Write a sequence for this structure.
């Protein structure tokens, strides 16, 4: 029997020679691919940047439009606020003016009612009363210091067919150096009216000049008719310098 001779099977190795030109092409292709990849990345970044720029421009335009709208709204609101403030001031001024006119009208009504009552009393007096009456005594501060204007209204009650003739005496009582002092007609300034002659009524006016250091407390007015019909009347009112600081009508003393 024939024996096969065992042996190792050897593979053939083929060695090929690498051509330098092929290696260079491979490097060129690789470099070109890298360049193309970089160019692609650049263009992609450029496109994305342009897209973002367009988005930013649109947002900027929208914001600018919103700012303009808000500015218009702000101007409109400011105009409305100014108009409202003007309207409020005008309304307040109108209300103040109306209140002042109402007060004036009330004062006029009170004066007219007082005048009507006065004339009714003069023209149709109470038949049970006759003689001379001190109807009203008003005191008010004058321009000079410690000087005061007075207004005195006398009326004749009952039968007024006869004139009343007479004289008025004004006394001011107060304190000076802790003593009670009474000042007579010598406190009246020159030109003050003290004589009267009337049938229905008469108004006498003048000024009272207070000496320094004198504090008034009350004023007494005495009217005496000495003509054909004799009559007398007396009235006393409380009066202080605090009262004389404003237009004031005397208050009857108790």
């Amino acid at each position: 029997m024939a024996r096969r001779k065992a042996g190792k099977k050897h593979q053939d190795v083929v060695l090929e020679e690498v051509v330098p030109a092929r290696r260079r092409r491979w490097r060129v292709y690789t470099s070109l691919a890298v360049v193309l990849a970089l160019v692609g990345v650049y263009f992609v970044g450029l496109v994305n940047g342009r897209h973002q720029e367009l988005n930013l421009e649109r947002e900027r335009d929208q914001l600018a439009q919103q700012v303009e709208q808000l500015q218009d709204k702000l101007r409109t609101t400011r105009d409305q606020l100014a108009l409202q403030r003007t309207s409020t001031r005008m309304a307040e001024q109108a209300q103040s003016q109306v209140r002042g006119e109402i007060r004036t009208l009330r004062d006029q009504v009170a004066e007219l009612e007082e005048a009507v009552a006065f004339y009714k009393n003069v023209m149709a007096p109470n038949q049970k009363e006759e003689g001379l009456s001190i109807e009203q005594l008003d005191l008010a501060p004058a321009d000079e210091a410690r000087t005061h204007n007075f207004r005195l209204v006398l009326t004749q009650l009952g039968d007024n067919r006869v004139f009343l003739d007479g004289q008025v005496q004004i006394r001011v009582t107060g304190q000076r150096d802790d003593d009670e002092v009474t000042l007579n007609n010598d406190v009246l300034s020159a030109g003050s009216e003290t004589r009267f002659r009337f049938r229905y009524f008469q108004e006498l006016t003048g000024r009272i000049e207070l000496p320094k250091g004198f504090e008034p407390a009350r004023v007494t007015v005495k009217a005496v008719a000495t003509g054909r019909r004799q009559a007398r009347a007396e009235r006393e009112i409380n009066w202080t310098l605090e009262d004389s600081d404003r237009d004031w009508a005397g208050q009857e003393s108790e």
Remarks:
- Residues 5 and 11 are 18 Å apart (CA to CA).
- The radius of gyration is 58 Å.
- The mean pLDDT is 80.
